[in-house]
Amino acid sequence: MRGCVRSYLRVSGEILISLGVVVLGFMAYMYWGTAVREGSAQRTFVAELGHQWGSAGPSLAVLANPARLALGQPFALIRIPRLGSSWKFAIVQGTGLPQLALGPGHVPGSALPGQVGNFAVAGHRVTAGNPFWSLPSLRAGDLVYVETVAGTYEYRVIGKPDQVPADDTAMMSPVPGHPGEQPHQRLITLITCNPPWTGTSRIIVTGLLVATLPRDQGIEG
Amino acid sequence: MYGWIWHRLPGGTGARLAVMVLLAAATGLLMWYVVYPWASIHLPLDQSGLG
After folding, report:
1. DSSP 8-state code for residue B43
2. I need a surface site. Which of A18, A95, A104, B29 has the fewest CB within 10 A?
3. How far is B12 from chain A (nearest CA, A)?
4. Does B28 touch chain A (CB under 8 A)?
5. A–B: how many Cβ contacts below 8 A?
6. Residue A2: inside a domain
7. What are the residue boundaries of the structural domains of chain B, listed by start?
8. Residue B51 to residue A96, Cβ atoms within 8 A
C-alpha cells in the first residue's frame, strides 16, 4: 500500500516537473522563437515586395481594389526614423494572430496608405520581433514613412501616444473616435498592446499625411 | 514515468542513456517546431488580434 502511494507520488511529481519544463520552453519560444519566425517571414516579404514593385502590374491593381488583398499578404513597408535607421517592417493584410505573427497588420476595411480616412496598422508589442515595442516613445512631429508600389507616404505624428481600452474600436474608424462620420483627412493610426504581454488596453499613435513622395525617397534621416 | 521507460529500453546503461537523450531531443524539437508555433497562434495570449 505504502509503495503504491509512493509510486503515484513519484509519477505525478515527474509529470508536474515535465509540464513545468514544457511551460518554460513555451515562454522561451514566445520570446525568441516567434522573433525568428517573424524575421524569416519579413525577409521573404521585403524581397517579394521589391520583386513585385520592380514589375508594377499586379501590385498596383491590388492597391486599387483592397478587396483583392489576401489575408497575410504583404503590400507596404513602414519605417519610423525615431525607432532607428534599421527599423523597417513589411505590413501584411489582416490583424488576426496568424497575421500579426508575421508582422504589423493592416486593419481590413480601414483606408489604404495615402487615402482619405484612417490607415490603421496593429502590431505586437512583444513577441514576433517586438515590432511596436517602442511605439509609446513617439512624439508629435515624428515622421512615419509608408512605402507602397504607388509611392512613399510621409505622415507626421500628431499629439502624444494615447491609451484606450482594448475594446475601443472607434479609434480605427475613418474619423478616429467618431464612427460613421465622413473623413476629410488622410490619417495613419498605429496600434499596439499596453501594458506589454497583456491585452487590457492599447497604445495608439496618430499621424497626418504631410507629403506624397516618389517611392524610395524620404527614407533617410 | 521515466523509470518505466528506462526499464523497457533494451541494451546496457550506455545504450539506454543514448536512447533517452535522443527521445528528449526529439520531444524538444517537436515542441519547438510544431507544438509551440501552433499554440502561440491559437492560445488566447497577448491578444493584439483585433478581429
Report:
1. S
2. B29
3. 23
4. yes
5. 72
6. no
7. 2-41
8. yes
User: Per the structure, how many domains does chain A have?
Assistant: 1
Task: Determine contact: B40 vs chain A, CB below 8 A.
Answer: yes
Take residue A32 and report the three cell numbers written for it: 525568441
The domain in which residue A93 lies consists of: 37-213
- Which cell goes with A8? 503515484
Residue A38 corresponds to which cell in the numbers above? 517573424
B12 vs A: CB within 8 A: no
User: Residue B1 pLDDT more than 50?
Assistant: yes
User: Which residue in the set A15, A29, A169 is minimally distant from B40, CB to CB?
Assistant: A29
- Candidates A18, A100, A102: best to mutate against B (most CBs of B within 10 A) is A100
Q: What is the mean pLDDT of each run of 10 residues along chain A (221 residues)?
A: 81 93 91 87 88 68 70 90 90 88 89 90 85 88 89 90 82 83 90 78 90 67 37
**Would you say the ipTM is above 0.90?**
no
Mutate: best of A22, A40, A97, partner B, most B CBs <10 A: A97
